[in-house]
Amino acid sequence: MKERIFIGTGFRIALFDKRDTNHFFAKDALGSLLRNSHLYMSDFILFETLTYLNCSVKRHDIAVRFLTEIRKSPVTILAVENIIFGKWDMNAKSSGIDLISILEGYRSFFSLRGPAS
User: Fold this and answer.
1) What confidence tens digit (pLDDT) does each residue in 39-98 have?
2) Confidence (pTM)
3) Terminus-to-terminus CA distance in the chain, angstroms?
4) Angstrom distance (rounded) from CA 44 to CA 53
5) Degrees (nearest 5) of the Cα angle 79, 61, 43?
6) Taking the domains of the chain in order of start, what are their residue ranges?
7) d(CA 82, CA 90)
8) How far is C-alpha 41 from the chain's CA centre?
9) How far apart are CA 37 and CA 51, in angstroms?
10) Which fold would CATH assign to domain 3-113?
């Protein structure tokens, strides 16, 4: 069974912003994550990443490329509204996913990288 990994904003930004100090780590890790894991991110992270790439990096073209690649990728986008208002349980039971497992996967992702330097 594949491990469930929750991908955060920092990882997504590092993939698309070559100036990010974690850019090469993120690019190296992506292939392994795609092969060995089910990847998840929230809709909030999607919008936060788009905003950062468009407004802070000031690269609309990179923001558009990010969104295009997300649409083609196997990443599951979780609606935060469903989690907050209790609608997530119905979906989780039918898909075999629960929030605790996703959060444990999120913790596991950061343990792959090792301690912060």
Assistant:
1) 888 888 988 998 888 888 888 888 888 888 888 988 888 887 766 555 544 444 434 445
2) 0.66
3) 32
4) 14
5) 5
6) 3-113
7) 9
8) 4
9) 26
10) Rossmann fold (3.40.50)
